[in-house]
Specification:
3 copies of one chain form a homotrimer.
Chain A lengths: L8 E6 L10 H8 L6 H6 L6 H12 L2 H14 L5 H15 L1 H11 L2 E7 L9 H8 L2 E7 H11 L3 H16 L7 E3 L16 H13 L6 H21 L3 E4 L18 H4 L9 E4 L6 H10 L3 E4 L1 E2 H4 L3 H10 L7 E2 L8 H24 L5 H19 L3
Parallel strand pairs in A: 1-2, 2-3, 3-4, 4-5, 5-6, 6-7, 7-9
Helix pairs in contact in A: 4-5, 4-16, 5-6, 6-16, 8-9, 9-11, 10-11, 13-15, 15-16, 16-17
Chain lengths: 394, 394, 394
């Protein structure tokens, strides 16, 4: 195992959050943990959300490896016992003592995190980025999530001419004066990744929107045709502005449909001649189908893999994801990311986990004769920061 | 690697069998081994089942890692040479000397196996469970396989009113006075796991059965509609009786279609509001698609993963399955199981393999800083027995 | 880890190539490396192929683990620095000094490569095998790719009677007097692996060809029906001549569609009664879906797995592929292969990698108690050469 703890980090995919100075242990678990449903999820199923149900939900979150790793590392960082109560008390105390920006900055520095590339389409309502920047004390580069815009336009119930004009102009504004460094799509959560590249015909947008407005709710076909078309338009804007397109692939929460989020479904689109000039960043590298993303990054020259969300939310998967993506993806096409949110702590523990996982995966490649130690060190530097900086021109 | 050899075991998924005191080496291989086809499989393909073909079939079974592990462990247990002949002779001798129940009880005790949760829908005709209980000297809790009942009702060729009434009453009887602790479905072997949750409409059962009876064999559409509906009815009975529903996912034998058995196909159904109160145990945790099952067990609060069949039939996969399922599944949602059958020996060797695989997988999580040794020991105890006891209220 | 460096090797799947005595570093990278697109790929996308684009393409190839491993091993072999320039200079010098056949023969001997089973359907135009045999100094057994023949017949635009007759006769000639040792199909690159076994009806070939000729280019349906039928005919010829059928599964280059190349899609066909007498070799064992291929090789008695292309082109995947395929595939059903081409060097480095990966995978099986050291040595011998010799009757 190699030691990369001193290398700088650019987090290629994460989310801004609202500052919270003091949290109860339950609020902290709820803000940072992953999975296991929610009271609303149970209620919608007609299940009583009593004390036993709440205990069950909390226990599921605390029983994930993701949560255990974070708890152990923070207990070490604060020098307290490995319990939620002790860690949260230490966190609240530190913020009260030194102020939020200092606390966040010190954690980012401990992880050597130098820049965050954030998707501010989550959470909603959107976080003010200037405020966020001031609070976290680290460089923040935003990407623009097209689905927020699409929902706004659908809510306004306008015709295609207006829809298309506002769609194009809003994206151009975001990428021009707006300071956004690229686009992001979560179409995998909506109508799935089997996007027909032929959807780029402007007629498809018009016909699909017309059908949708005349018969809202009758079949999901027009919705899919509309979203596929708007996805294609977004690719074209990325080419125009020479910025990357982040596409969610693979894991999400309970709303993503596993059968529709595989990177393999994107292949026809990614290799379509008109789109070969677009730089696609496959967000979450499609975990648990990350082998497909690595494959695409090998055979197509315009694909980047972001290992976020699998690392850190899939616990000990990190070293496996890195090793398996690198089976085929060129070293220059893999980027560290976390997809975390909510509070500075997981940004720090994710960076620790990312460096540990890289140290194990690249160390094994040295042991097995694939890389010299020097090549491995260069690879770690590229994956942790340089590839993202090159991709986002920063 | 941690040593869990002294921990108690509950086998959450296995099958009863008919007692056989003396077996020839060939019979023993045939009774316990897995895969590689059968004389009937070859005959149906017009292939001569001559001595060479039989040798080939036997060799395929003996060339699996599953078989090699079992042979090595039994040779150690009996203190004989690592050959089929020596092991089978030792087994037959032990049964003759001490009696079947003592022999079986001693093997279960060596593996610290305390309870078997058995699906008596295999083999057919069904095994008498009282007799089986007396022979194996260990606690036996049965689950009820709905497909045996469905086949009986289809064979009786009755109308929907009678079909539905007998289906519901038979399940209620099994879960009430019958002593069954839950249901089990192998719809993955039949019409596949892409079950539409809208199938719960009673009309779908009536229409599908009517179409099926009028045009038996013309397309599989009515069969699928009927099975999907009956699957939904079975979920509702599990909710009524507050018992778990075991659903076969992933690997089986040559009759399961790999493309129709992925856990991902179940997602729409598992998260359907009306079914959120049902506890689903994903049998075989969908191996080789076990990453999908672990994902579902993370993002949905009512999913359990049973690692049976992959462990032990997929040889050295056990430690990988456990590690990869735990990437996302909460520790409280993973259960040891074997899916073995036929004779007491594989129950013992599967328990050995399960403990070894857990020791390796959890030991690595300790090494990588995800769990303390204490947390790993608690996790092993939960996965080997406590999670199954909690799930089955035992 | 066990040391298998002295064991003989039969490469069950690779390609002949045109001799090139002196290559520039760029030509050498281009001839041997994998992935990352090509100037033509970019041009078709309207992208300028300027110096920066060429540098990017070269960098992607050099940034793969496959390439790094090859470079390190060749630098050691020649005793030169680990740079492309030094290795290519040493290679060109060696060929100039000792002659091509001596150079190639010495590399093959260093890897103990004794026989190559070659698919001469790639590259096109086809390589003269007598010439190739003389140049490489090692036994060469060819297999016949049906898609080359199909394309020729389609180009001739003949009716079904002539098409069918020429198709059957050409295959019979190849397998009879032609010296071909079996067939090969890349239908995964064309219309996908979801081949309906009912396609064997002769009517399907006639109707599909008629529809295709009347409406060439209108929908891919007739193409798929025709290819499925011809695939079925090829299976029948393999049964007649008792030779194996190599079927491409899983990874290829950018033209294979990941969603259509999974081994699972073949299941219905592989288990179809009429085809149970055919020996299928699943080329590339379906990587990254190799778990599916291993499963098929377990539950069906007529399936072999070839680990080529994943090993060596997927870098450090080799030991994982072997370990995961052996989870279910009997040891007697797994064959070493490389799928390399272009020059003798990758044949040598692939053999090194294959032996290293086997040493690691089988060594772990010994450590975990699945195999004795003797069993592991026998398994290595079988996988490296004996299984392929048995399959091809050599």
């Amino acid at each position: 195992m190699l030691d990369f703890s001193d290398l700088p980090v650019v987090d290629v995919h994460c989310h801004p959050y609202r500052r919270a100075d003091a949290l109860s242990p339950e609020e902290w678990v709820d803000a940072l943990a992953f999975g296991g449903g929610s009271p609303a999820y149970l209620q919608e199923g007609g299940i009583d959300v009593d004390a036993a149900a709440l205990t069950m939900l909390g226990r599921l979150k605390r029983d994930t490896l993701y949560f255990r790793f974070m708890l152990h590392r923070l207990a070490e960082y604060f020098g307290v016992a490995t319990t939620v109560d002790a860690v949260v008390a230490a966190r609240n105390r530190a913020i009260a003592n030194e102020g939020y920006a200092n606390y966040a900055g010190r954690l980012h520095q401990a992880g050597r995190i130098e820049a965050l590339i954030v998707d501010d389409g989550y959470p909603l309502p959107q976080i003010n980025l200037d405020k966020f920047r001031a609070e976290v004390g680290v460089e923040v580069l935003p990407v623009f999530r097209i689905e927020v815009l699409i929902q706004d336009l659908l809510d306004d119930d306008c015709g295609w001419s207006e829809f298309r004009q506002r769609y194009d102009e809003s994206i151009a504004e975001a990428l021009g004066n707006g300071g956004y460094r690229g686009l992001k799509s979560i179409i995998a959560y909506r109508t799935g990744l089997d996007i027909d590249p032929g959807s780029r015909s402007p007629d498809q947008g018009r016909v699909a929107l017309d059908r949708l407005r005349r018969a809202r709710g009758r079949g999901d076909d027009p919705v899919k045709h509309l979203r596929d078309h708007l996805f294609c338009r977004a690719i074209e804007r990325c080419i125009d502005f020479d910025v990357p397109f982040q596409v969610h692939t693979g894991m999400g929460d309970w709303e993503v449909h596993l059968a529709a989020c595989r990177p393999a479904l994107l292949m026809e689109l990614l290799r379509y001649p008109a789109y070969r000039a677009c730089k696609f960043l496959l967000v979450h590298t499609g975990y648990p189908y990350h082998g497909e993303a690595g494959y695409l990054a090998n055979v197509l020259p315009n694909i980047w893999c972001d290992i976020s969300e699998g690392l850190p939310f899939a616990g000990n998967a990190g070293k496996r994801i890195i090793a398996e993506v690198l089976e085929m993806a060129p070293i220059s096409r893999v980027c560290y990311g976390s997809d975390v949110y909510g509070s500075p702590e997981p940004f720090y523990t994710s960076a620790l986990l990312g460096k540990q996982a890289l140290g194990q995966a690249l160390g094994e490649l040295v042991d097995d004769g694939f890389l010299s130690v020097g090549e491995a060190q260069e690879a770690a530097r590229m994956i942790l920061a340089d590839n993202a900086r090159e991709l986002y021109g920063n």
